[in-house]
Specification:
There is one protein chain. The protein has 13 helices and six strands. It has a two-stranded antiparallel ribbon with strand order 1-2. By secondary structure, it is mainly α. It starts with a strand and ends in a 12-residue tail after the last helix. A hairpin with a 5-residue loop joins β5 and β6. It folds into three domains: 141 residues, no CATH class; 82 residues; 29 residues, no CATH class. The radius of gyration is 30 Å and the shape is extended. One of its GO terms (biological process) is cell adhesion involved in heart morphogenesis.
Amino acid sequence: MSSYIPGTSDHCLVKSVTSFSPPDCDSRGERRIWCYKSADWDEMRHFFASYPWQQVCFSSENPSSCAEAISDVVRQAMEYYIPYSDVPVGSSARPWFNADCAEAEKRKHSAFLAWVDARDRKAPDLSSKKRAFNHAAKSYKKALRKARFDRISHIGQKLSAQPSGSRAFWSLAKSVEANFCRPTLPPLIRPDGTLAHTAREKAGLFASLFANNSRLDTGSSTPPTLSHCGTSMPEVRIRNKEVLRALCRLDVNKASGPDGIPAIVLKACAPEFGATASGRKKSFVGYLTNEMDGITEDAKRQNNWKDMKNGLHGCMIFQILKYHTLFPRLKRP
């Protein structure tokens, strides 16, 4: 890409050549808003109670794959039974754009089309059409400024009416500031010459750089021999009723995790997730508890605590229970 200073001179005063491509400024992010008050909870519970969990979500021996399959099923049910809307976020969103702005924009566009038509026809009223377009354009800018000012004033009044530090105050402040997630680091250069723009790409680049700089040349030295630990991990049994109790204690006001499943869905459908009443199909929590018991038994038998940790973190129910510290014995003594 080359950039030149505009002008009519044949001399190149400033020339810039780079192989880096700028980020796509037209990309728009979207945020999904769920209408939980209009959700069909009865049909969602029936969906979870009758779903074939074993053959769909537990066909793989990899706990991470099972957790991802379960999350996909829950998200699919949310799309079926909970109304939602995708709203744009970021700099392209214009929440202050009201009906007055839309009407002013419409008048500006109509005046522009009339002026272009008069110019193409060389009409005698071309100057009046031009003045009408200029007036409509100025009116449109005034409407935009007024709408922005009114929205800022309205938000300021709402913030001043809320107690400082309250939940309502911070909820409104985070919605205005896009959850305070504005990037503070400039784009980083990868070893191959490309740029890392997103937060995930920057974090991965920092992680790889830290890993490369953290390697030590130990030569031919062997790791030290540790004495055998006399203690052993006690038997760990994860019961369905304990999982059901943990689901019912979830705080629905907390934000959802990386899987995008809100706590209100897990809590509202907790009986279908955790119950194994007679005459009903086994819930996915039942299969998960059996799988976690198998992971802990294998780790205890093979004394492989790292594999046990990786397996437990791959299970969705462990992600739920870790916030409630129901199983302190999971920690290695």
